Protein 1
Amino acid sequence: MNDATRGAGDRKGGWQRLTIAANRWLWRRSNDFAREHGWEIDRSAWGGRRYRDPRFEQRKKEILESPPQDEPISEPPPRKFSPGDGFPRKHPKIARAHGPIATAGLLWRWRSEITFAGVISLIAWQGPVAALLLAGAVLAGGAIPAVRRAAGRLVTRHRFQGLCLRTSMRTPEGRLPLIVHTQSIPGGTAMLIWCRSGMSPELFEDYIPEIRVACFVKEVTLHRHPRWAHLLTIELRRA
C-alpha cells in the first residue's frame, strides 16, 4: 500500500515538473523579451502571461496630475486653388499642333468611327437589301446594354478630347493627353490618362468644372497612380 502511494505521488510530481518545463519553454522568448525591455510579467492560471510596461502607468499619472492647458488653436490650412471660386486662370493659350504626327493622332482618335463608316459604305455598296439589314442590326445593337455602354464611353472620350483642344489641357507643343483605357463603372465612366511631358495632374484639377459640363456628368474624381506619376485616373459619374 505504501509502495502504491509513493508511485502515484511520483507520477503526479513528474507530470507537474513536465508541465512547468513545457510552460517555461513556451514562454521563454516572450519572457526574455519582456525582461530585456523592463516589462512586468504577471503569470495567470493555465500557463497564461500578461505583460505590462510600467512607463505607461507613469505617463498616465503625469497626465492626470498635470494642470489642464489651453491647446493652441491651429489655423486652417490655406485653401487649394479651385476653379469657380473666383480665382483667375493663368494657363497660357496653346496653339493646336500641326504636322504628320498630329494628323496620325487625329486618325487614331477617330479610328472607331472611320472603321464603322467604311463598313457601312462597303455594305451599302452591295445593295439596298444589305443596307436595310445593316440598319436593322444597328437598331438591334442599340437595345443591348453592353453596346450602349461602349457607345457612351466613346462619346465621353470624344467630349473630353474636344475639351482638351478648346482649353490648355495640352503640352506646350499642343499635344493632347493620351487616353490609355476607358471602362464603365457604376453610374459613369473611368478613363486612364497618360500625361505627356509638360503636363501634370494639377492641370486637370483646374478644369474640373469644364470636364463636368463637357462630359455630361455630375461628379469628377481624380486618382493619381500610387507608383507612376504620369498616370491619372478620372472617374466621371452621372449621379
Protein 2
Amino acid sequence: MLKKLDSVEEFNQLVEKESKFFLLKHSLTCPISHAAYKEYEKYADEHQDIPTYYLAVQESRPLSNEIAEKFQIKHESPQAILFSSGAASWNASHWKITNRALVNARTENQ
C-alpha cells in the first residue's frame, strides 16, 4: 500500500525507522508521471514486504528539494528512489519507472 509523505520531518523519521523503502516523486499534472505512478502502484500491491511511499511534487516542494540536495540526486518528476540504510541506492525517472525496473532494483540492491 502506498503511503503519502508531506513534510521533511516525516521523511527524516522514515529514514531513521525503515532500513529499506521506495519513494516516488510524483507530478499531479504530468501524463508520464501518471503512467509511472500506475507502475509503482502495481509494484506496491505485489510487494507489500517493502514499504512504498510517494510525494506529490506540487504539494511537497520543500521535501522534494530536500531529498534532491541531501542525497545529491538531480530532481526529476516522476522519479523513483530506493533508500537503503539511510542512503539512496538506486533511482530512475520517467519511462524507466516500471514494475520490472523496481523488482530489479530491489534484487540488485539487497
Protein 3
Amino acid sequence: MKWIIITSPEFLSGEATFIDKLFSSGLDLLHIRKPNASIEAYIQLISQIPSKWHSHIVIHEHFELAEEYNLYGIHLNRRCSKIPATFPGRISCSCHSLEEIVKEKETKDYVFLSPIFDSISKVGYHAAFSPILLKQAALENIIDEKVIALGGITACNIPLAREWHFGGVAILGDLWRRMSDPQVEQYLKQLHCLLHHV
C-alpha cells in the first residue's frame, strides 16, 4: 500500500526537518497543501526539504513549481482544477463519490476518495461511505490500487482500508498532532510496517 502524507494547512516550526524524517521512515509521497500560501512560501518550504526527496513531492497549488523543482506531480482540487497546458508529469485529484472515481481514474495516476472515516483535522466531517458500500466498490474494482483512502486515517483503521482494496492511505490529522510526541518514531515504524507488510 502507498503511504502518503498531506501537510498541515499551516506552516509549522521544524516542518522541513520532520518531513525529512518521514521520508527516511519510508514515506512514499508527500502532498504539500497550503491553501493560503504564496508561491514564495511554497518555494521556501520546498527548498528546506533535502533535494533527494523532491521527486516524491506533490503540490496542490502553484503548479509551475513542479517542473522547476522536478517534483513527483500535481494534485487537482476544486480551487486548482486546471492542468497547465504543457505539464508532462503525474496528476492526481480529489474525489468525494464513487461516480467521481469511475470518471477520474481513467485519466489520473491516482485519486483520493474521502472521507472514509470521521475526519481528525476537520470537526464535523464524518465518514461518507458505509463499510458495505466500500466492500461492494472493491468487488466491482471501483476501488483498486489507484484509489487512495483519505479522511480519519489512523494506524488502527489501515487494515480496514487494505480489506477494502485501497491502493494506499493519505494521512493528515493523526500524524501532525503527533509531530512533537517523543513516541513519534515508534508511530512512524508502526505505519511503515502496516503499509509495507514488514
